[in-house]
Structure formats: C-alpha cells, structure tokens
C-alpha cells in the first residue's frame, strides 16, 4: 500500500504584512517524524534542508517557500504523472492563512512570496478543492494549521466535498472563520498540532491510529483553548499507523458473533447496539451528512420497507451522535417523533424531557403545546440550550394517513416551514416519507 505525505511548515515571509513565525517549521517536522516512524509514509518536507549530522532532511526554519513550489508539490502529491498513484495522501500545512473578501470571500495558504498589496494572496483554496475532486487518490487527508491576525481560511473552500463517491477523506482546520489560531502554552507547537501529535502517536504497541482517533484526540482538547478546530470525515476508516499489521490482525482474528444482525421489518435505531450491525449504506450516509453540513432541511423518500428510517437513524443520526464525522455534532440535540393522528401534539411531546417525573412532564408538555399552538415553534427551538437541534419527523406520510383534521395538518406544515425560515442553522429538519405520498405534498 503506497502512502505519501507532503508536510509544509513556513516560518519566513517577505511581505511586511505577514510576520515571521517560529512554530510552523517545528510543527511540520514533528508531524513528519511521526508519519515516518509509525505510518510507513513516504514524507516530502517543504522547505527541506539537509541535516549534516544525520545526513537526513528536515523542515527548514528560515528557508522560503514560493507559491510555485507549493503548487507543484501539491500536484505531485494528489495528481502525480504516470500510474504510481498513492493509495493514501496527506497534506499538512502550517503557516499563515489569509481571507480575501472583495465581493467574493476566498481563502488562501500564504507562501513566503505572498504579498496581498500587489494582488498575490498565495495558494487559492478553491484551486485545492478542485484538485482534490479530480484526484484519483482514494484516501485524501488535509490538515491545515493556519492563522494570521484572526483571519482564517474558509473551511468550505478547502473542504473537498464530493461525498459518497468511494473516497475516504479526513479534513481538519485549526479553527472557525474569524478565530485566531494560537501556539500552546508551555510548548513550541501550535494548539492544533499539539493535539494532532497526541493523536498520531500510539499510546501502546498495538493501538490502531485512525482518522477517527485523531479527531477524538483533538476534540478532547477543545474546552482548554480559545479556538475551536473544525473537522469532517467521510467514507471509511483511514489507518494512519502501520497498515500491514492492521491487515494481518483483521485476517487472523476475523469476526465471530452469535448475535443475529438482522432486524426483519424493524428499523435499525441510532443506539450503539443497532448501529454496529448497520452495514452497506456508507456512501448514502456520507451524502446525508453533507446535507446536514451545508443546509437545514433533508427529505429521505423511498418505497415502503426500503430502509429510510434505518439509514437516517443508524446511519445519519448515529454519526452525528458520535461527533466523529462533523465537528461539534455530538453536542447537538436530536429529537424524533412520528406525526400520528395529531401531529402538533406529537411535535410538542418531542420537546418533553424523558427524565422528568410524570407531573413535571405533564407541565412541560402543556407549556410546549401552548407555545406551538400560539405559533411559537421557532421560539421553542431558539431557547433550546444547544448549538443545533436535529428534528426527525419519521414516517411523515402519517400526516396524510392518520391525521384527518385538515386545519391541524396545515398548521403543522406552517409551523415547520416558519421554523426553518426563522431559526436558520439552529434547526435541521429531517423527514422520512414513502415516495408514493410525494404527490400529496405537492398538493
């Protein structure tokens, strides 16, 4: 299995607008060594200088990197000439990141010759995104540790997108837009790279290091720092340490279980017990996760018994609950209900806490019903103490098959639509519905 990595750490800049740095070269060299020592990666350093004592290469502390050099190295990584295309490719970049906002917002990776004053902003992240979409490398990993005076790269521009097409991807950026990225206290490394190094180094001999365990290591450090790294994983697991040992271990051990994994006519739920046996919908789950990331509405339609509820529950909701595919999704609240005969009452019950006593539950239900009846559904979403509410209306066709009150049905529709308009990204609405009822919605 061929595995290549391009590790970039730029300390030196020619433009007065960009201050020289000290951490990037050290960050890059530390990442390079771990990838070589534990991951069997063929690592190219940029800038690279010779270490005369050991007759090896290391990331240069003062050597400059031009835009042409960086572009050429990235093309060689993800679109090499000939048939020697790596199975896995990693791009790690540490240095300045810039945002240009002149009509259209664009993100850039700053090179040593970057000079915004003369129109040279560095490497365009839109170009990187397009390159990744055209690349034939199956496992693509992008780690960007950049900042400059609080202006950060645009996550969406660098994110490869293109979910559900047979590629495994891991994307990590140092922080949200408009947030600075910091050097850690008591260390020579940045905050993101400090956590990244902890995730890349196995704690024990047979520990498997993957894109998910790296994300776990980064997430565990979030409360300690004033910046919030963002990440997105799609496709399957990417092993980052010795792959031959992983293949051998899986081949020797196999999987033997007395548990029957089939649910018959029952759906797979988003519990760990059900999700571990849910298999074969990975590409579709990635597409659903992409919808969650870029919008606030998703409708899953299909024939009766085709697995709509299972892919939403054991696929989408389970991944959101785990928080390993989309950064921060494990802090979101997930609420599920079926419309039934009275969809407004069912909607109100979805916002009642299960752990309350019967009396408290009755009181909370009464308040929720009153608020919704008064057109305050969007207020109910706004006051929920969570960054985002994922509301699943499962078996949406019950609005037509069980609810006979047209007025209540229309109110139900109006409240959901108003909530989407007024709550923005705070509400994400998911519907599952039999496809033969699509005409009813059109009416």
Could you explain the architecture of this structure?
The protein folds into 2 domains: 3-247, Rossmann fold, CATH 3.40.50.1460; 272-442, Rossmann fold, CATH 3.40.50.300. Helix content is 36%, strand content 19%. The model is unreliable at 148-152 (pLDDT under 50). With 443 residues, the protein is α/β, with parallel strands linked by helices. Strands 2-1-5-9-10-11 form a 6-stranded mixed beta sheet, sandwiched between helices. The protein has 16 helices and 15 strands. Helix 5 (191-200) crosses helix 6 and helix 9 (282-294) packs across helix 10.
Number of helices: 16
Walk across the major sheet and give the strand order: 2-1-5-9-10-11
Share of helix, binned = 25-40%
Helices and strands: which structural class? alpha/beta
What fraction strand? 15-25%
CATH topology of the largest domain: Rossmann fold
Domain count: the total is 2
Averaging pLDDT over every residue, what do you get? 85
Overall shape: elongated
Radius of gyration: 25 Å
Distance, first to last CA? 55 Å
Major sheet characteristics: 6 strands, mixed
What is the highest CATH level, the class of the largest domain?
Answer: Alpha Beta
Uncertain stretches: 148-152
* Secondary structure: number of strands: 15
CATH architecture of the largest domain: 3-Layer(aba) Sandwich
């Amino acid at each position: 299995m061929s595995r290549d990595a391009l590790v970039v750490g730029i300390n030196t800049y020619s433009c007065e607008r960009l201050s020289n740095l000290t951490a990037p070269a050290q960050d890059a060299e530390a990442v390079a060594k771990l990838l070589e020592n534990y991951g069997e990666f063929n690592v190219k350093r940029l800038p690279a200088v010779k270490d005369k004592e050991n007759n090896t290469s290391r990331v240069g502390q003062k050597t400059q990197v031009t835009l042409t050099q960086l572009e050429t190295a990235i093309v060689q990584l993800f679109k090499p000439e000939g048939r020697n295309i790596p199975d896995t490719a990693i791009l790690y970049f540490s240095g300045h990141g810039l945002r240009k906002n002149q009509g259209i917002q664009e993100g850039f990776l700053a090179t040593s010759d970057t000079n915004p004053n003369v129109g040279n902003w560095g490497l365009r992240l839109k170009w990187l995104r397009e390159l990744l979409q055209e690349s034939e490398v199956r496992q693509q990993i992008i780690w960007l540790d950049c900042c400059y005076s609080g202006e950060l790269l645009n996550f969406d521009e660098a994110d490869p997108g293109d979910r559900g097409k047979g590629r495994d991807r891991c994307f990590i950026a140092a922080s949200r837009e408009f947030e600075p990225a910091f050097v850690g206290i008591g260390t020579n490394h940045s905050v993101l790279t400090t956590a990244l190094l902890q995730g890349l180094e196995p704690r024990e001999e047979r520990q498997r290091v993957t894109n998910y365990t790296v994300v776990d290591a980064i997430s565990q450090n979030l409360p300690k720092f004033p910046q919030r790294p963002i990440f997105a994983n799609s496709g399957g697991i990417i092993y980052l340490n010795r792959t031959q040992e992983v293949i051998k271990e899986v081949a020797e051990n196999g999987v033997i279980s007395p548990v029957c994994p089939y649910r018959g006519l029952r759906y797979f739920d988003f519990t760990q017990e059900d999700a571990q046996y849910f298999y074969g919908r990975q590409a579709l789950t990635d597409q659903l996760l992409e919808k969650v990331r870029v919008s606030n509405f998703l409708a899953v339609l299909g024939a009766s018994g085709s697995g709509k509820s299972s892919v939403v529950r054991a696929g989408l909701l389970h991944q959101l609950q785990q928080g390993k595919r989309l950064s921060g999704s494990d802090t979101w609240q997930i609420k599920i209900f079926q419309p039934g005969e009275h969809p407004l009452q069912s909607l109100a019950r979805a916002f009642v806490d299960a752990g309350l006593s019967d009396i408290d539950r009755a009181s909370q239900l009464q308040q929720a019903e009153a608020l919704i009846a008064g057109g305050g559904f969007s207020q109910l979403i706004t006051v929920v103490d969570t960054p985002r509410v994922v509301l699943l209306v499962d078996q949406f066709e019950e609005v037509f098959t069980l609810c006979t009150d047209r007025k209540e049905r229309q109110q139900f529709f109006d409240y959901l639509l108003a909530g989407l308009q007024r709550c923005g990204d705070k509400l994400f609405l998911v519907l599952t519905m039999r496809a033969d009822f699509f005409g009813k919605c059109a009416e």
